[in-house]
Structure formats: structure tokens, C-alpha cells
Amino acid sequence: MVSKRRVQLLVIALTVELGFAVVGRWNALDRLLHGDHGPGSVFAVVRLSWVLLVLVIAGDMARAWLRARSALYRKDQTIAAVGSTTHDWLWESDLAFTFTYHSPGVERLLGYRPEDLVGVSMGDLLADQERERAQSILADGLAQLTGWQDVDRLWRHRDGHSVVLRGSAAAIRDESGKAIGFRGTRSRVSDLVAEDDVLAIRDRVEQLLTSGTVEIALQPIASLFTGRLAGAEALARFPDGRGPDLWFEEAREAGMSRALDAMTFTAALASFAALPDTCYLSVNASPALILDPAFPRWLLDCAVPLERLVIEITEHVAIPDYPTLNTALAPMRERGVRLAVDDTGAGYASLRHVLQLRPDIIKIDRSLTAELSGDRARRSLVTALVLLALDIGATVTGEGVETPAELATLIDLGVDAAQGYLLARPTTDPADWCTWPDRNWAESVCSDLPRPAPQ
Predict the structure, then answer these.
(1) Which among 29, 32, 115, 361 could bridge 41 via Cys, Cβ 3.0 to 4.6 Å?
(2) Got the DSSP string for 231-242?
(3) What digits encode the pLDDT tens for the residues 40-62?
(4) Confidence band (pLDDT; 50, 70, 90) for 265?
């Protein structure tokens, strides 16, 4: 790397060059100032101006370089300080997952000195039973360049025993935005999570993915303008009766969440056949699935009515790179697929999702619809979301509606649609689905209900 001293010498040399240029061309400059506009005088002054311009440009470049070098130095010092004081293992690798840096934490966790592992492949440090499983995570991380979050893996300690470590990683990008490697951290998992527990979770998720035994429940979404069925949300139901949140949490820990997401998304598309042509199907998808290069190609080739498909992204899912996600969504949205942001109002991330992704549907979280009729603050927030939706050309759906008063208030506030236990619980029975197009939910639950008085 060019040193600060060399940059200073370059600036001095250019300054001296400018001084000699001024002295050497002083007579020509003097003649020009006294009215001699001959070619020789003009050419000399032009050359002098050129030297001055070069000096100014070189000075600006030197200052920018020194600022960048200073920022890089401060960043390196921050990483070094964190690495030397934390018990976690901080690491960096190239795009082939060959390690280029380790903090002292690797010795505390795996028994290796940091310098012993520079140039070592990540796969070589995994326990034998983990290497094949890990290839899919590494391949996904490389293909999508989004890294991974909170994945549990068995690592090989220097003395031979296995250690359960939880890790996250993100892509390292240069000043042009090009990915040049990965940076991440790993820490010891609680002693309550034993090696056998991690392997049992892996086996359970793998068996589910192999068998494909997942059911789809639908929950109706009713239009609050017509009272009729507007669409339905597809929800995964698993054979052991445990909730989707737990299954996806285990899949994430096993590094298989994208595979489970793809399986449930595919299963949900079969529900189109049970819905009338006037209704849409809303299906959850994680950013990791959408960013998989194969997903848009697969979806656009599916024999499903894309103009009736809504992809839901939840507030609880981190989005590391909004422009990249928007780029991945663009070909699908051009073909008619709509985008919904779920759980809006549950946290700060949901508002960022709305502003960055500009969805077609904003779904209001149950935390806002609960007791909406008697809470002025909640009504103000819902009103603000309705106005925001008007500004970006979206519609608003209230989730978790459980009382007639909540539904009536949503209607009064101009919310477009609603879903919740008041209307119908999620069901896997197609016989129930067939009755939905003929119902008028708003009329049946709100016809005799007085509107809340203004406050």
C-alpha cells in the first residue's frame, strides 16, 4: 500500500514542478500581461495553467486517498479492538470460503491459534457429519451474497471433539458494491443445546423436506367495500401439530429455512384451484427465497395465474439489501405478481419495508387492530397507514380481527379488507373454502352494530 509519506513527497514534487514552471515561463507571462498575445506567450501560459490544474487534481486525489486510508485504519482498529476483547470468533473469508482473518476468539472456542487457520477452507473445520449439510448453506450464501443468520453448526475442536457454534455472516463489498468475501461471527451455544439436540433437529427437518408432508390451510380475506371474498392467505400446517414458527425456527438453525420455505410455497400454489377467478392467493416468502436466482425463473414458468398471486414478506424478516430484493422482485411484479408487507405496525422494520419496497398491499398487524374501536392512538396510526397506502397506490388489510367493533372501526377508517377469527379461522378443509364466495362477512357481523362515536 502507498504510504502517507510517499503521497506527501508526490505533492511536494508537484509543487516544486509548478514553481519551476512559473519561473521558466515568467517572461512569457509578463509579455502576455503587457499586451503581447503572440503564439509563444499564449502557449507558455497554457502550459503553465495545465501544470497548475494537474497540481490541483493531484492535491484533491491525495486528500481523498488520505481520508479513505484514515477511515480504513479506524475501521481496522475497531475490528481489531472488538476481536481482541470479545469471546466470540470473528472471521473473514474470500468468496471461496477460505479464511483470511480470525480473531483470538477462535482459540477460545476451537483451540486453534488465529494464524494457524489463515488460508484454511471453512469446510475443513466442520465436524465430519456436518460437511455435506454445510455445502448447501455455503452455496446459497455464495449465490445470493446475502450471508446467513443464526445458523447452528458442529465444528471440530483441535482436540477432536465437536463444538456447537451459532454463526451469522454477511457479504463484504468493495467501494463499487462488488462482493469480495464474507465476514461473520460465531459464538458458543448455550450448554442446554447439546450436540445430540442439534443433530435431532437436523434429522427432523430433513425428514420433513424428504417426505413433503405439509398441509395448507387457507384463511379468507374479505373486502370491506363489498363484504365479499377478496382473497385468501395460505398457511403451512405440519404433521406433528407444532406451529409454523417453531418449524421455521428449527429449519433456520439447521440452515434449511430456504428449502422449507420453497416447499411450503410450492404446496400453497395448489390452492389456486379452490378459489374463484376473482380472488387472489397470498403466500409467505422469505427474502432468501426471493433472492434465490432459480426462484423467479421457476415461478414465472409455473402454470398459475400470476396476476392473482400475492407474495407476503413479514416485518420479522431482516432484509439486508433492499435494492437487490427489488431487482429480484421486478420481473415477477411486471408479470402481475403483487407484493404485501405483513405485520405492519409491529415494529420499525415494517415501515422500512413499506417505504423501500412500495408494496401493493399493507397488512396491519394484530397489535394495532386489537381494541381498535376504543383506542384513539391506534385509530390514528391506522389512519396514517391508510393515507400512506393512498400515496403509494396500495391497499390496506387489517389482520387479526376478532370482534365486530374492530371490524366496524376498520370500515369507518377506510381500510380496504380484513381477515381474522371473527370472519373465519384458517382451515385445511376444501369444503369450507367452497362456502366463502357466497358469504357477506361485513353484513353478517356489522349490520346491527352502532358506529363508535367520534372522540
Answers:
(1) 32
(2) EEEEEEE-TT--
(3) 666 666 666 666 666 677 667 66
(4) very high
